[in-house]
Design a protein that fits this description.
Layout: H1 2-14, H2 17-45, H3 63-90, H4 96-123, H5 151-170, H6 179-202, H7 221-239, H8 260-277, H9 288-317, H10 322-337, H11 345-369, H12 377-395, E1 402-404, E2 407-409, H13 426-455, H14 463-468, H15 470-475
Antiparallel strand pairs: 1-2
Helix pairs in contact: 3-4, 3-5, 3-8, 4-5, 4-6, 5-6, 5-7, 6-7, 6-13, 7-12, 7-13, 8-10, 9-10, 9-11, 10-11, 10-12, 11-12, 12-13
């Protein structure tokens, strides 16, 4: 009798789709966690694959460059504050707490995965597609390569970059992504997609750097921003739009932000952090001309992009739009991140102007395709990242060589020259190959990841949970408990796609 009653309860519960989804998520999550734990223990307790290099075989530690790299790392990490403020400000109030919790937890996940295997996949040699040793940083030299920067300091710098990519991915998924789903895809992003595909461009033997004309990405327009933007696009497509979202072509427009002031302040904090992102990528304070030029170019591209976006939108709708100006200067920062070391101030000015237009065109495209990206992650990071990567093949002057631990190397093999400076199309073709390959591969893998997480039933929050608001439903708290917050209705805008209305 007891057995038959138990069997009836089991079959009754399994007939419920929600119960099946929860069981699959629970069992799948535990299985994945167990596999990762056992694998980590096996790798960590195993003897090093490579013996520690003798002290005399590694470059001496350069204290000045180490301090410079760590200060830059701290600036890049501070961008997390900017990201959560930008996203929370441009989103609705009922998902603000969710954005901050996701940002903090993604950072923690990134730290563990990038230490355990992500750094090894990305920055250690193996083949053109993936690094094969250095898990848990075991068996590696005291300094990284020829930088003169201690391995652990270099790790902190690169961890901040990986964390940036991880945070970018969540922007297009705001307002309807379940918290467990966020954890699952974050492990996939920081543990596998970013480090493995990033190895292609930044690994010591990455295949894009072995082309006849090597692919270049100084600080990550492709490696950080295009990868993050492509994952954002996949997530937004798989999730679908937020409930009640009416697109421009259907007579609506983006939902209003709950605090555009907070969003703009977050954007300015990101701009400040970019002075660690770009100049810090020299890894050398001794390259005084290089870091000065990169800092100037970073500033100029942001300024020209912000102005271009501001005036372009004013010409369309007759309003001076704060939100689109913010995303405009962010697009300029993303675009200049790849070519900042190799272009002149004039080149940076024009790269920024084009980025200001590109981000708006990308917004219009998403609206037409009915893809809901509340923060503008895809236009800012994917579209502007692609433009910035290609711009190197146009604007590289051929005058600045390559950064080293002691300054620029201007030998013939290190010169990067673009089409507009007599370099022909070879660098432009190399940039196109690298950008297309990395973006296409990321999109394919990201769609597989997102659909896999979606199958667990954890990627998209339930209809009831979305209507209630993620803050209350997922976290049991509100960002503004003193106020009665009513549900938002989509508000059509004259521009439709303008990110001041996100």
């Amino acid at each position: 009798m007891c057995i038959s009653s138990l069997w009836k309860r089991i079959t009754t519960n399994l007939s419920d789709a929600d119960v099946r989804a929860n069981m699959l998520a629970l069992i799948g999550g535990k299985a994945i966690g167990l596999i990762l734990l056992v694998t980590a223990m096996r790798i960590y307790l195993a003897p090093p694959v490579l013996a520690q290099a003798p002290a005399g075989a590694t470059p001496a530690i350069n204290a000045i460059n180490t301090a410079w790299t760590l200060i830059a790392a701290f600036l890049v990490f501070a961008m997390q504050v900017g990201f959560v403020m930008l996203e929370a400000g441009f989103a609705r109030s009922r998902e603000s707490v969710n954005i901050l919790v996701e940002g903090i937890v993604d950072t923690c996940i990134c730290g563990v995965t990038f230490w355990a295997w992500g750094f090894a996949f990305m920055f250690e040699d193996g083949n053109g597609f993936i690094g094969k040793h250095g898990f848990f940083l075991k068996g590696l030299a005291d300094t990284y390569g020829t930088t003169g920067v201690p391995l652990l300091a270099f790790w902190v710098f690169q961890f901040a970059f990986a964390d940036t990519c991880s945070t970018v991915t969540s922007g297009a998924m705001v307002g309807r992504c379940g918290f467990i789903g966020d954890i699952l895809y974050s492990i996939g992003v920081t543990g596998f997609i970013y480090p493995i595909i990033g190895h292609w461009a930044w690994g010591p033997d990455g295949w894009t750097t072995t082309l006849a004309t090597p692919f270049h990405d100084f600080a990550g327009s492709t490696v950080v921003h295009s990868i993050g933007g492509a994952i954002s696009l996949a997530g937004a497509v798989v999730l679908g739009p937020r409930l009640g979202r009416v697109f421009r072509r259907d007579g609506g427009g983006p939902m209003l932000p709950h605090n555009i002031i907070m969003g703009a302040i977050g954007g300015l904090i990101l701009w400040f952090g970019w002075y660690g992102f770009n100049p810090g990528s020299t890894l050398s304070a001794l390259d005084a001309q290089g870091i000065g030029r990169v800092s100037f170019n970073t500033t100029m591209a942001a300024c020209s992009a912000g102005l271009a976006a501001l005036f372009y939108v004013y010409a369309r709708v007759g309003k001076w739009d704060l939100g689109i100006t913010t995303n405009g200067f962010l697009a300029g920062l993303v675009a200049i991140t790849c070519p900042c070391y190799w272009v002149s101030p004039t080149g940076a000015f024009f790269i920024g102007i084009v980025a200001g237009f590109v981000v708006i065109w990308a917004i219009d495209c998403l609206e037409y395709l009915r893809i809901d990206d509340p923060i503008g992650a895809v236009p800012v990071h994917l579209a502007a990242g692609i433009w910035g990567t290609l711009s190197l093949g146009l604007f590289a002057t051929g005058a600045y060589g390559a950064p080293t631990a002691t300054g620029a190397d201007t030998s013939a093999g290190m010169i990067v020259k673009g089409l507009f400076y007599g370099g022909g199309t070879s660098q432009l073709v190399a940039q196109a190959i690298g950008s297309f390959s990395i973006c296409a591969a990321t999109l394919v893998v990201a769609f597989v990841l997102m659909y896999a997480v979606n199958m667990t039933g954890t990627l998209r929050i339930s209809k009831e949970g979305e209507l209630e608001g993620l803050d209350s439903h997922e976290h049991g708290m509100l960002a503004y408990p003193e106020y009665v917050i009513h549900g938002y209705e989509p508000v059509p805008t004259s521009m439709g796609g303008g990110h001041a209305r996100l």
